[in-house]
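User: Run a structure prediction on this.
Assistant: Running it now.
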Amino acid sequence: MTKLLCNTFMWVAFSRVTAAYVAPSSRRSVGSAFGTRLMASSTTSVPAADVSIPRRIKAIDAKEPSEGAVAVKGWVKTIRKQKTTAFVEVNDGSTLSGIQCVLSLADISEETMKELDQVTTGCAVEVTGPLIKSKGGKQAVEVAADSLRVVGVCPVETYPLAKKRHSLEYLRSLAHLRPRTNTIAAVARVRSHLAGAIHAFFQNSGFVYVQTPLITASDCEGAGEMFRVTTLDLDNIDDIPKQKDEEGKTLAGADYKEDFFGKPAYLTVSGQLGAETHACALGDVYTFGPTFRAENSQTSRHLAEFNMVEPEMAFADLESAMTNAEQMLKCVVQHVLENCQEDLQFFAKFYDKELTARLEKLVSQPFVRISYRDAIAYLQEEIKKDPSKWQFPEVEFGTDLSTEHERWLAETKFNSAVFVYNYPKSIKAFYMRDNEEDGGETVNAMDLLVPGVGELVGGSQREERLDVLEMKMAEQDLDPADYWWYLDLRRYGTVPHAGYGLGFERLVTYVCGIENIREAIAFPRFPGNAEF
């Protein structure tokens, strides 16, 4: 049922909103139809395409022999020269494997021979010739090249990505070149499919896509780990305007009334509060964009700049949020399983041998759901057997679960994706709805834990009661004046609503089976690093 529903989502979404997932022949048809309509409504004629120019083909589309010459454009992965033949493997980024181009040295022109002498690993080339059935067993077709042109040379003596394996840590220092490696290119392709599938799922579930601001005056999580945005001249401390009291005495701290926004401003840690405003008018909405956290963490799970997927649903409770999160994850993972097989096989071979089985299990089996109290009881029972095996053996009601606790629950106790719900109020954010049945000791919050990662999703039912929300803000020393607009949602037509946040880069690491989140994003930002 899940697979059928997901396939329906994908087909409708990709046929409606994007040509990126349409087969190449269909993409050309869509373009031709659009061009025909454009010409019919315009007095300007469009020149006909030059049929003498070989059509460009990408490696992902090179399945069958071609009727005529094609053009392959990309970067050289390897080159081998024999007495009579040269073999050039060209990768254009569309697949892991690339296309093998075979040049008969006796048949190519003198100009092509000169170009061939310049070919090195990493150089950009354009190769033309017909696609023929491959004589080798590694690929279905190859290019019987009749010409080759070096578009951009690559001096092999200085090229940092020489033909050898490099550590992922080293490649981070070459973030501008590392997309040319097998691992990072495969991550980028899977990441692209995941992003498209997420948009497709929500669009076809009736959600409205909302872009919330990156600059904010509100701390959504109340943790204070935010990057400040200012135009005050920090290079000249003495010139920064200072606060003054009513008598004109200078106080400690800058006077942000003189700053660009007239108040302290920050990079957002979440689009949730902004999304709630639209959910309380449009019903179901979602955001998908960058967020920032100034957390001084060097772990493999944290970034200073990352992307969050944050749906908000009106007239919804925590159960609705958990159900929607489960449906969404199953749908997008199923899409990757069906459309990124070569890349997943690569990850399974070099990074996580159990990857495919783990992803298939996530799609096919229902997620486990347990209360926080039960999770603590399970952990206490297990830790009691040998506390020395645990980095954090002290676990009780009120403990903020660590990664080792989360992974034990998902990987060992249940061997499944696990929703843990009804967390203690003391360790969760101010906007989460108090549970009435236990006197407000817990809140209607949940985390989704998955094998190999730990926490992947966090969500809650939002506190829709104005008096309760104001009381909770006071308890956490939050100024109601900073959240006046958020409180207005409870004054005017308040409604039960719920939502969750999915860390997109964590999803990428989970689906690719890679350990460090710094490989899941093009240019990782973390303490001490803001290169590129």
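The first strand starts at residue 55 and ends at 56.
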